[in-house]
Design a protein that fits this description.
With 251 residues, the chain is an alpha/beta fold. The chain contains eight helices and seven strands, in the order βαβαβαβαβαβαααβ. The chain has a seven-stranded parallel sheet, sandwiched between helices. The longest helix is centred in the middle third of the chain and has 24 residues.
């Protein structure tokens, strides 16, 4: 119960990795804000799991591409919980095309949801963090550094996200807020279904995995829980890979 009495807000927690993070934080004592944009039913299922763990859940529909909706979400959090101790930006979207096919509408959408939202939301979250400080995590991916088919918009958005994490880490240190990013390897979620030729890419990655298995959402949650704990106080502005070793430069 590392987070008893704390409030965690996890964007994109109706499904996938965000869902697992929300439930794991609740199991460790936190009340949780469940954010989504389309799948209300899935978000309510996440909330039911949080409540089954004995914690309070606040479900908020807010499109992370919309500054006003983000601000409204934090107003709701202020009214219901009066504070935020942990903010995790898991919501993500993307235009899955090669660079030459990428349109500016898709680019703007991807950067808005994945990166601009982080800027706005962290500014809002910090205002609700108590004097004793808090934690911020951005979910990135190793596509920020490595080139994947059809991943240019998301990869670039994550690279900018990781940079923003470093700036926040330094500028929020005096507020006792630590800020880090987690770059996960491929995790089987709905997100992967939207990439053309994903079966082939997964097969290729699986063959390269020194760990012999794919990364799962609990692997990401284990690190997130640690990064938000007192023990990780001096880990600041880092992007930590949870990828089973797949990106190691093997000889
Ligand atoms: N899966 C992977 O292989 C992998 C690898 C590395 C990093 N990551 C990162 O981990 C995070 C979670 O990925 P995932 O695979 O779990 O994704 P996912 O299963 O596709 O779930 C995406 C989540 O984000 C929400 N979302 C999407 N657009 C939104 C918007 N505009 N406003 C608010 N919420 C929005 C979705 O809500 P709705 O249910 O309402 O649509 C859903 O809860 C992302 O940041 C992703 O880049 C994933």
């Amino acid at each position: 119960m590392r987070f008893a009495g704390k409030v965690a807000c996890v964007t994109g927690s109706s499904r996938g990795i965000g869902h697992r993070l929300a439930v794991r934080f609740a199991e460790e004592g936190a009340d949780v804000v469940v954010n989504y944009v389309r799948n209300g039913e899935a978000a309510r299922k996440t909330a039911a799991e949080i409540e089954a763990a004995g914690r309070r859940a606040l479900v908020v529909r807010a499109n992370m591409a919309d500054e006003t909706k983000i601000k409204e979400m934090f107003n709701q959090i202020k009214t219901v919980f009066g504070r935020v101790d942990i903010f995790i930006h898991g919501a993500a979207s993307g235009r899955n095309r090669s660079t030459m096919e990428l349109d500016t509408k898709g680019w703007d959408w991807t950067l808005s949801v994945n990166t601009r939202a982080f800027l706005i939301a962290v500014q809002q979250a910090v205002r609700l963090m108590p004097e004793e400080g808090g934690s911020v995590i951005a979910l990135s991916s190793f596509g920020a550094d490595y080139v994947f088919p059809y991943y240019a918009s998301v990869g670039a958005s994550k690279a900018a996200l990781e940079s923003l994490v470093r700036y926040f880490a330094v500028e929020l240190a005096e507020r006792k807020i630590n800020v880090n990013a987690i770059a996960a390897g491929a995790v089987y979620t709905d997100a992967l279904k939207h990439f053309p030729e994903m079966e082939q890419t997964i097969k290729h990655l699986k063959a390269k995995m020194p760990s012999g298995r794919m990364v799962n959402a609990d692997d990401v949650a284990n690190l997130a829980l640690f990064l938000c704990s007192k023990e990780a106080e001096m880990i600041r502005g880092q992007t930590i890979r949870v990828d089973g070793g797949v990106t190691l430069p093997l000889v």
